[in-house]
Amino acid sequence: MHQPVIAAVGAPTVGRSDLPGRDLFSVALAEAFEELPDPAELVEAVYVGNQSETYEHQIMYGTLLAEWAGLRHVPAERVEGCAAAGALALRHAVKDVRNGEHEAVLACGVEKMSAGGTGGATDALSAAFDRALEQRSGITAPSQYALLAQRYLYETDATERDLAAIAVKNHANASKNPRAQFRDEIDIDTVLDSPSVAPPLKLFDCAPVGDGAAAVFVTTAELAADLDVTPVAVTGTGAAANNIAVAERNMTEIEGARIAATRAYEEAGIEPADVDIAEMHDAFTVCEALLSEAVGFAPKGTGYQSYHDATERDDGWTDVELSTSGGLKARGHPIGATGLLQAIEAYEQLTGGAGDRQVDGAETAFLMNEGGVADAVTVAHVLSTEVSG
Amino acid sequence: MSERLDSESPLTLPGFFSALADGDLLGGVCTDCGEVLIPPRPACYACGSREIEVESLAREGHVYTYTEVRTPPPAFEADAPYTVAVVELVSGGRLTGRVNAPYESVAIGDAVELQVRAPTDDELEIALSYETEWPVHVFEPL
Predict the structure, then answer these.
(1) Which of A11, A42, A388, B59 is most buried, judged by most C-beta within 10 A?
(2) How many domains does chain B have?
(3) Same domain, yes or no, for A250 and A296?
(4) How many C-beta neighbours within 10 Å does residue B8 have?
C-alpha cells in the first residue's frame, strides 16, 4: 500500500467564462504543473469528473483532456455521478496510487454550465432525477432540495433566517477566495428578499450556475518528495450510492453521507471531532445543515447552527470550520469540477496557502461531495498534513 | 425469480404503467422486510431480497413535504408555477408528484389521492418513444 498524496492543484476562477470546457481545463492544468515537469513526463492515467454532455454536446472527456494535456495513450475516462463526479474522479486516482496501479494520476473536472443558458442548466440537472416518476412530474433541482428544506424546517427549530445565515457565512468566506465566483459579502436580508425559487428556498439559498475546471495531481509521497513539492496525504476515502428518488430515502437523516463519511474516517483512523476544516456540499443552504448532522459534526436537529462560530453552537457540535472556500453557494458549483475544488481548498488550507482565509493550525480536512439529490451518491475524503511512507 | 421480465411484467416500467393507465397502482412488497417499492422492481433496496410480491396499493396518502416549482424546466414553462409533493401512501411507500392545488392551500399532513391522466401535447413532445402511452400521476386533495 502506498500513501497517496495531492502534490499540486490548479483551477481558474469559477464563473461565467468565455472559454469552452477544454480551455478551462488547460488553465487549471497550467497552474497545477507550473512548478513541475510537463504532465507527459509524469501522468500515467486521467479521470475526468463531468456531469453532462448536453452543455457542450461533448462526451469522451477522458480522451479529449488527455489529448489537451499532451498525454497520448494513457488510460483516460470520464467519471459521472452528477455533482459528485469530481470526488469520484479523485477517489479513482487515490485508489490507483494506493494499490500501486499507477504512481501519478491526474484527477480533473470540468463543466461549462453557462453554454445552454439557465434553461439548459435546469434541464441538464433534471436528468439526475428518476425519469419514470420524478422528471415527468416537472421537478427541478431547487424544488427537490426545497422538499428537503420544508421537511427540515418542520421537524427542527431551524428557520428560513437560519438557512439565510448559512449563505451569508459562505459569501463572507468567498470574499477572501480569489477562485470564488462571488466575492461580495451579503446580509440576511439579501437572502430573505431574493426571489423565491421553490419555497422555502430563495435565489440566495441556491448555488449559482457557473463554468469551471479543476486539476488535482495525485501521486506517492516518494515522488512528491523527489519533485520537491509540498504533499497533503489523502488518508481516507468513502463512497455510497442510495436510491435515485429522494422520496424513497430518509429525508432528514442523510444516511448515504453518514456511511460514506464513516468509511473515510475509519480508513483515516480519525473521529469527526478530529476534523479542523470541512468543505461541505452546500448546493442549497439546507444541505450544510443536513450534512453537518450526517457526518458527525452536529447533534441531530442542530446542523443549521453551522453559521455560528464554534463557541456559539449547541453542545455536541465539534469546533470544525465549514466551507472556508465559500462553499458551492459562493465559491461556485461547476458541477463536475466541484469535488476537486473542495480538494483544492483543503490542499491550500493544509499547506498554509489559503491567504486571508487561512485557518491557523489546520491539520485535518474533510470533504463531502454529493450527486443527484442529497445522498443519491455521496463521496467523502479525509486529507492530512501528516504524510507517511 | 421465475417470472419473465418482459413488458407485461409489473416488475418492469411498461408493466407498471400499463396497470396504472387502468387506475391500478402496483407496488412491490418485499416478503422479507416488508418494504413497499413504487414502482415494483426485481430487488428490494432496503434488504436486497429478490422475493418481491406485486400488490395493488390503496391510492390514498398524506403530504410528507411539498413545495412549488417557480423556475420550471423549459418543457414545463406553461404549467408553472405548480405544486409538487412527496406523498406517503397509506400502504407505506412514498413517491413524488404534482399536487392539483395551489401551494398556499397545501400543508404537511394533508390527505391526497393519486389519480392519473394522459400526457398533454407538451408532455408528449418531450416524451421518449416508449413513454407516449404512459400516464402521468397527479395527487388530488381529499
Answers:
(1) A11
(2) 2
(3) yes
(4) 11
